[in-house]
UniProtKB/TrEMBL annotation:
Protein name: PDZ domain-containing protein
Secretion signal, residue range per the UniProt entry: none
Keywords (A to Z) from UniProt: Membrane, Transmembrane, Transmembrane helix
SUPFAM superfamilies linked: PDZ domain-like
UniProt-annotated stretches for the region Disordered: 84-113
Length: 282
C-alpha cells in the first residue's frame, strides 16, 4: 500500500516533466523552422526583383522571336519522335527481341498484336485485304531478318560496330513505306486510323510576313505546297527551303470546309504551325 502511494505521485511528476520537455522541444523546432523559412525569403526577394527588373531590357523583340523559333523547333522534334514511336509500335519489333528472354512464346505476343493492328489499319484505310496481308507478311519477314542479323552480329562480336549499322541500314532499305506503296489517299487514312496527325494547321500569322501578304489566316489547313501533298509541318519546313528562293509557288489550303489556292514566294512563310488529326472522310 505504501509503495502504491509513493509510485502514483512519482508517475504524476514524471508526466509533468515529460510534458514540459515536449513543449520546449516544439518551441525550439518552431523557432528553427521560422528561421530556416525566413532565410531563403530574405535572400531570394532581391534576386527575384533584380531578374524582374532586368528581364524587359534583356529580352529584345528579335531575341523573343529567336526563342519562339527554338521552341517551335523543339516542339517539332518532339512530335517527330512521338510519331516515330507510334509507327514503331505498329510495325517494328523492339530491339529487346534479340535477347534470350524473348525466345519464349509470351514475348512474341506484342509482335502478333502489332501485325493485327497494322492489318486493321490498312483495311480501314481502304487497302485490299490480300494486299494488306502481303504488307504484313513482308514486314514480318523483315523483322525476322533483323533478328537474325542481330543474333549473328552478337555471336560474331560486331554488334556495336559500323559494320552492323551498315548491314542494318541496307536491310531496312528493302522496306517500302505505306505512302510510297499505296499513295497519299491511303496514307492519309492510315495515319488517321493509327491515331497520328495528318493535317497542318496555321495557329497564327506574323505581321508583315509573306503569309499575311499572301492572304493566309489562322485556322487554315495547309494541304499541299508546290503541288506536294503534306501531312506534317516538318515536311512543309523542308519544302520551303527547296527550289529557288522567292519563286512563287502554289499552296492549297482548306478554310471553313472549302479548298482554295494561294500563292507565296518560296522561303520562310512567317506562320506558326501545329500538327493535328482530322478525319479525311468528313
Amino acid at each position: 500500500m505504501n509503495k502504491q502511494i509513493i509510485f502514483i505521485p512519482g508517475l504524476f511528476a514524471l508526466g509533468i516533466l515529460t510534458g514540459i520537455f515536449i513543449i520546449l522541444s516544439q518551441q525550439d523546432d518552431e523557432s528553427i523552422t521560422s528561421t530556416m523559412a525566413a532565410t531563403p525569403t530574405q535572400t531570394s526577394e532581391p534576386a527575384i526583383m533584380a531578374v524582374a527588373n532586368r528581364a524587359p531590357d534583356a529580352m529584345q523583340p528579335n531575341e523573343l522571336e529567336s526563342l519562339q523559333d527554338r521552341v517551335d523547333q523543339l516542339t517539332s522534334r518532339v512530335e517527330q519522335l512521338e510519331q516515330s514511336l507510334q509507327e514503331m509500335s505498329v510495325s517494328e519489333p523492339s530491339d529487346a527481341l534479340g535477347s534470350d528472354e524473348t525466345t519464349s512464346s509470351s514475348a512474341e505476343i506484342p509482335s502478333s498484336d502489332n501485325a493485327r493492328a497494322l492489318t486493321n489499319n490498312l483495311l480501314n484505310a481502304g487497302v485490299d485485304p490480300i494486299m494488306a496481308e502481303e504488307v504484313v507478311r513482308r514486314r514480318s519477314e523483315l523483322d525476322l531478318k533483323r533478328l537474325e542479323l542481330r543474333d549473328t552480329a552478337i555471336r560474331s562480336g560486331y554488334i556495336d560496330t559500323e559494320r552492323y549499322r551498315d548491314e542494318l541500314n541496307e536491310l531496312l532499305a528493302q522496306d517500302v513505306s505505306i505512302r510510297d506503296e499505296f499513295g497519299d489517299y491511303v496514307y492519309d487514312r492510315f495515319l488517321y486510323n493509327n491515331g497520328q496527325p495528318n493535317r497542318i494547321r496555321i495557329d497564327s500569322v506574323m505581321v508583315s510576313s509573306a503569309a499575311e501578304q499572301a492572304g493566309f489566316k489562322p485556322g487554315d489547313m495547309i494541304m499541299d505546297y508546290d503541288e506536294q501533298r503534306l501531312f506534317d509541318y516538318t515536311e512543309l519546313q523542308r519544302a520551303t527551303t527547296q527550289g529557288t528562293r522567292d519563286e512563287y509557288v502554289s499552296v492549297n489550303v482548306e478554310r471553313d470546309g472549302q479548298e482554295m489556292m494561294l500563292w507565296i514566294p518560296r522561303g520562310p512563310m512567317g506562320v506558326r504551325l501545329t500538327n493535328t488529326r482530322i478525319d479525311p472522310d468528313l
